[in-house]
Amino acid sequence: METAMKPTYIKRKKNGRISIKAGSKSERVIRWTLVLFVVLTIAAFMFFDYTGLELWSAIIETGQNLKVMFFQPALNHFTWAEALYQVGVTLGLAVLATVIGSVIAFFLALMAATNLTKEWITKIVRVIVAFIRAVPTVLWVLIFAIAAGLGSEAAVLGMLFHSIAYLVKAFSEAFEEVDKGILEALKATGSSWWHVVTHGILPSTFTYLLSWTFLRFEINFSVAVAMGAAAGAGGIGFELFMASGFYFDLREVGFITYAILLIAIILEVVSTRLKNRYFPSNVRN
Questions:
Q1: Is 261 exposed, middle or buried (0-12, 13-18, 19+ CB in 10 A)?
Q2: What is the pLDDT of residues 136-152, one digit of tens each?
Q3: How many CA atoms lie within 13 A of 29 on its CB side?
Q4: Which residues lie closer than 8 Å to 19 by C-beta, 6 or more apart?
């Protein structure tokens, strides 16, 4: 009689070694996680207040609203020139938060990398940025909106805080992946700490820093759209808030949504081209 065997998964690493892991435990974790999600979803629907809800009419009205929104987009309360200006404001907020954040994050990441700084300094920096990263960007923006007042300053400061914490983690991990032999060779020749950074760290990690920075810029653009109304920062997000919350203009909401989608597609195309240029091996694999 054949004995039943537990399923195993064979994974070949890049260095040629083979690691075999039993899949029974991971399968149970995945299975129970999915079951928990299903149970919570059903429970959420059970606790909804369905008083006065007419499901069929609600579906019809929602479909009609979506039809007007996405098949009849139009500008009614501002011109094309104003729309382009508002998009530029949103992009400007994202660029400002990303550029300043990446510069500050670079120097903090040097202190957070275990192969460049003393251990106690690394721990302090990592604890601080972990706390900042744990707080959502929206909450940081609202905190600065209360402290500094509504406006673009609060939006930039809130996005800046979270961008720094996000990029410090990404940059420091890239620094720690640098070949130890390169750093030891530079130190053996009497190179200073800054010389090691500029001639050993930067050449090896520049493409990764660029990729992570652009990824954070995409995130900041999305956040800037949402914060345009929440923090009074203006931009296309504020116009979307006015069109939906004050004018109740579904056509204008559709137009603004398409404009945001177009910008997001352009950013994705640029990001893909950068990855194809600087990481061709990853694309082939």
A1: exposed
A2: 888 888 888 787 777 77
A3: 5
A4: 10, 11, 13
